[in-house]
Design brief:
The protein is an alpha/beta fold. The protein is built from eight helices and eleven strands. The strands form four sheets. The protein has a five-stranded parallel beta sheet. Strands 3-4 form a two-stranded antiparallel ribbon. A two-stranded antiparallel ribbon has the order 8-9. About 25% of the residues are buried. One of its GO terms (molecular function) is tRNA (guanine(37)-N1)-methyltransferase activity.
Length: about 270
Amino acid sequence: MRLDVVTIFPEYLEPLNVSLVGKARARGQLDVRVHDLRAWTHDKHHTVDDTPYGGGPGMVMKPEPWGEALDEIVASGGPEAQPPVLVVPTPSGRPFTQELAVELSLAPWLVFTPARYEGIDRRVIEDYGDRFDVREVSIGDYVLAGGEAPVLVMVEAIARLLPGVLGNAESHRDDSFAPGVMADLLEGPVYTKPPEWRGHEIPEVLVSGHHGRIARWRRDQALARTAANRPDLIERADPEAWDKHDRAALEALGWERRTDGRFGRPGEAVEE
């Protein structure tokens, strides 16, 4: 996979040289190219922003350097290359989820455009949206100083899904929000050696050797953690996501099954 990042702070992307992403780059599994947007400016101050039309606070990133940068990067792929997916980090974008990470991990080429100030002149997004697959993506309901941190988040989430990047190919199968799980559940607690630490012992079921009981225990732990930390995931789950053991576990936690089959939070009235 090829990843291009255009930014006015290339040094912010140095973490892409370490950990799993850095190792994947060293092995040639990831071709990561970080570009300084100011290289496509033509004045002595390397200006990349200007005041917004219509007034208002802040500055807006100019379309000219972005257009030149993206044109040159796209052209570098050659005439036979599949066009890249343009990923635009923005608080007003589609939420970044595990499902979207999986979807983006299937693309051979991604170009990220982390902005600063009040964002990029909208015409850049519209122009490339006419010719390319453009994804405006948000990593959460909050505002950062720029899009570089979201790029780091997204690249790590995407890269670890690529074949060979994780040491164990099965490692991401049971992740929180992993596609294919019966319902969107948070991952339960995990343990390793030693079996006793500071008076705390690991759950006995994990050393029982009974794979069915272990799987059920892990599922129940995931249900309990999700119910406590993300009850919205329980509420909106398709009733078909639950087997009879799940339903019993949720009821034991105080959740109430509604007439439509979905579960409501403890203490809430059951719909008639």
